[in-house]
Write a structure and sequence with these properties.
Blueprint: E1 12-22, E2 25-39, E3 42-43, E4 61-62, E5 65-81, E6 94-110, E7 115-118, E8 124-126, E9 131-147, E10 153-166, E11 171-172, E12 178-180, E13 192-193, E14 196-205
Antiparallel strand pairs: 1-2, 2-5, 3-4, 5-6, 6-9, 7-8, 7-12, 9-10, 10-13, 10-14, 11-12
């Protein structure tokens, strides 16, 4: 197994709260949830090289490979232009830089009868559930905010680079033995690398309390 088609076409939803700790510096914290990504092609496939003695394994396959991610993150924001005023009102276009980090969890579903590599026995066995893993992530980015004069809402958009790499995806069998996905012909486990650029768009509201 070498790659997952569609892993970078993820859609992410975030909800959080922030606080202005200085005139042009804010901190925020929130939860993030990524919609399921990957692909599930269905059809007949020729696996005669991998299953030479099992002709029934060559047809009717559903090659599911889907990943779901969720987690939490905190960020520090520095306003370069037009931070909110002391009353919690943004009166003009604002520009800010952000840096942050978080911790994320992944669940990976593979097709039925997929053979993983048992680290305890050195043999291959069917993975009977979702592989799970967790990893820290770091983001840096730039964004703009603009008041839309509707219920005090502010539109936010921007771009960021995120480093997030799941290196410990695993599943445990009934004997609590760790089973992993490896690259074909090796014992090197497959990593889910989500690192790369991401775009963001959302609504927020400032208030004074």
């Amino acid at each position: 197994y070498d790659h997952i088609d569609g892993i970078f076409r993820s859609k992410e939803f975030n909800a959080g709260l922030g606080y202005m700790v200085a005139r042009n510096i804010a901190v925020s914290a929130g939860l993030t949830y990524w919609l399921k990504m990957g692909n599930t092609p269905v059809g007949d496939y020729d696996f005669s090289a991998a299953f030479p003695a099992d002709t029934s394994a060559h047809t009717g396959f559903e090659l599911k490979s889907e990943v779901q991610v969720y987690g939490f993150a905190t960020d520090v924001h520095y306003y370069l232009v037009n931070q909110p005023n002391v009353n919690g009102v943004l009166n003009a276009l604002a520009v800010k830089l952000s840096v942050g980090g978080g911790y994320y969890f992944a669940r990976w579903s593979l097709w039925e009868n997929y053979l993983g590599y048992n680290l305890s026995t050195g043999d291959y066995e069917e993975i009977g559930g979702k592989l799970t893993g967790s990893a820290p992530g770091v983001t840096v980015g730039a964004s703009f905010e603009y008041p839309i004069k509707l219920a005090g809402l502010v539109v936010e958009g921007g771009a960021q680079y995120q480093y997030l790499n799941f290196t410990n995806m695993k599943w445990y069998n009934d004997q609590s033995q760790e089973t992993v996905v490896v690259h074909q012909g090796t014992s090197d486990r497959v990593k889910l690398d989500f690192s790369g650029p991401r775009a963001q768009f959302g609504l927020k509201r400032y208030f004074n309390w």
